[in-house]
Recover the amino acids of this structure.
């Protein structure tokens, strides 16, 4: 079909304008048309090792996390039919931590029947062993055995365990007597105030058996 020069020019201008409009629209809507991989899109993309985990994401994938293990658990009598439960847990992760660690103490009698269970939650420090303590539990008869089970939450990326710990124990002192006491001097090595710092104490006899436990909260450590 014959097309004169003026019509061709108008057509070229029209096609150019349409192309420019399309280009601008694609640029403005690029995040909608071609969404960038994120750690919250419920898909494995970008540099993720799993669905929204690993790689650049703060959430660690399950295969990147070493499970926490229970080393031992005991019931420590405190007198008057009261007991303190204590369990020692090992954490071998050096670059990730869970926001919440659930736990359950279960007490059994001599026949293996469950006497009672006690649930709670705590946090897990990096790379080392730490105690979990539940205090002042009443029992009419002595528990024969105590177990500790863990329900670990999601682990998130943190700075690797430093050679210089954030909190250092400068001095510790034990005083015996009818009511034994433990005193400790703590130092915050960083320039950030630490609030609600849990402090837990486990006393061992010469055979490495736990015979007393205690815990407190330091409201502020500057």
């Amino acid at each position: 079909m014959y097309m004169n020069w003026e019509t061709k020019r108008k057509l070229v201008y029209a096609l150019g304008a349409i192309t420019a409009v399309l280009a601008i629209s694609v640029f403005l809507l690029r995040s909608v048309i071609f969404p960038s991989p994120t750690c919250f899109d419920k898909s494995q993309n970008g540099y993720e090792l799993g669905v929204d985990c690993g790689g650049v994401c703060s959430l660690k994938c399950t295969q990147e996390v070493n499970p926490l293990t229970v080393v031992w658990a005991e019931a420590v009598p405190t007198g008057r039919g009261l007991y303190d439960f204590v369990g020692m847990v090992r954490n071998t992760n050096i670059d990730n931590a869970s926001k919440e660690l659930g736990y359950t103490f279960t007490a059994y009698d001599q026949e293996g029947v469950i006497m009672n269970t006690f649930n709670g939650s705590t946090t897990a420090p990096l790379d080392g062993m730490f105690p979990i303590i539940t205090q002042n539990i009443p029992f009419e008869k002595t528990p024969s055995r105590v177990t500790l089970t863990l329900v670990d939450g999601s682990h998130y990326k943190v700075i690797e365990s430093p050679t210089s710990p954030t909190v250092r124990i400068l001095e510790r002192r034990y005083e015996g007597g009818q009511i034994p006491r433990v005193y400790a001097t703590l130092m915050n090595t960083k320039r950030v105030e630490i609030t609600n710092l849990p402090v837990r104490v486990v006393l061992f006899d010469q055979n490495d058996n736990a015979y007393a436990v205690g815990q407190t909260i330091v409201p502020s450590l500057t």
Summary: The mean pLDDT is 85.
